[in-house]
Amino acid sequence: MRTRLLILVLIAAMSPGAVLAAGQSAGAQPAAADPAPPSYTEETAWLCRPGRDDACAIDLTTTVVQADGTLTRETWAADPKAPIDCFYVYPTVSTDAGLNSDMTPDAAERNVIAQQFARFASKCRPFAPMYRQVTLAGLRQRLAGGGGGDFDLGGGIAYADVRAAWQDYLARDNQGRGVVLIGHSQGAFILTQLIRNEIDGKPVQQRLVSAMLLGATVPVARGRDVGGAFQHIPVCRQRTQTGCVVSFASFRSTIPPPANTLFGRAADAAHVAICTNPVTLNGDSGPLRAYLSATGRTIASSTSPQPWAAGTTIDTPFVSVPGLLTARCATNEHATYLEVTVHGDPADPRADDITGDLGLPGKPLPNWGLHLIDVNLTMGNLLDLVERQGRAWALRRP
After folding, report:
1. SS3 for 263?
2. What sign for the dihedral angle of Cα 251, 75, 321, 306?
């Protein structure tokens, strides 16, 4: 709840131009006066590493709620022999008081691992560094001070830390294995810079299974699959394609991106925001395999928890709602985005809607879309894609 309140305070100080400038400026590097990155040879510098009892070693049991209200349980387990690796950079979640976070994991960092990354350990070895990200308070302070265009969510000491973690991973752990890069929001901006500076067109690109840059605007040249953010790494168009990019920002079909949208609009008219539907990797519609938080679900008109199915109690951390959600890539006059449709049926006992909109109950903020749950909505589809891409990369391994 504290994180959500801070986000709401942050939004009040934000301007769309500031967020777009922060996310889309190119080529940022850490300033010379910035402090040195932490040592990533230290185990405490990582939220997740393979084989540890850490933020990724958690209960991810899921209750599957069918349209008729039937409940079943889906168990989960990590794969210690996963053939590829995943390297994850988390979004803006830190509730630390400073401009940049410290290196001590709090509930906010652990919770976002549970929501966005731990489940990938069933398909790949998990690597998730701590880093001194721009905090919620820091972002609000910088924007309120009028510095919207003067800083970069993909740069500074946050970028320097992630770069150091990536270099440590390559030196100690990779050993020629394929790797999926996964980031959301601030994490996606940082990974975009990392790929541009350290991977695109370089020998290490051969190890890239894919880059999943979620909840951010990643530009590509209009009518092409390269150009824009990257010169040699294309947009993913087929499920067995490797060395490519998956990116999208999700919005409800009933609340499409408005003129002041924060996502889905490239800053350069020669570019367009990448949208790759993780279900189909094209613009076609398909069913989302969402993994949503089972606690605290509220409907738009109420702040009281609502059941996922009438007369039921959920006792697992996550819920899956097959058939309730579909997605397709769409474009309106303001943005290119992942359009999420909710197929609720008042005649059945299952919930007819989801939550995840930023804003107050009944007053979603249209310019943010479903940013808070970009990854939750698509988790099952992303897992399927990682598995397929991992197999394809192994067959083509350099």
Report:
1. coil
2. negative
337 closest CA partner among 269, 266, 244 = 266
How far from 148 is each of 18, 36, 132, 142, CA to CA, in Å?
4, 25, 19, 7
What one-character-per-residue DSSP string does 269-292 give?
A: TTEEE----TTTSSSS-EE----E
Q: How many CB atoms lie within 10 A of CB 144?
A: 14
Q: Which residues are 336's β-sheet partners?
A: 331
Closest CA to 184 of 128, 229, 257: 128
Closest CA to 178 of 146, 157, 207, 158: 207
pTM summary value: 0.91
Maximal C-alpha separation, the chain: 62
- Within 62-206, strands assigned E span 62-65, 71-74, 84-89, 124-129, 179-184
Q: What are phi and psi of 93, to 5 degrees?
A: -135, -15
pLDDT, tens digit (0-9, with 9 covering 90-100), for 81-126: 999 999 999 999 999 998 999 999 999 999 999 999 999 999 999 9
**Could you tell me where the DSSP H helices lie in the chain?**
2-13, 16-24, 107-116, 136-144, 156-169, 186-194, 374-395
- From CA 107, how far away is CA 1, in angstroms rounded? 11
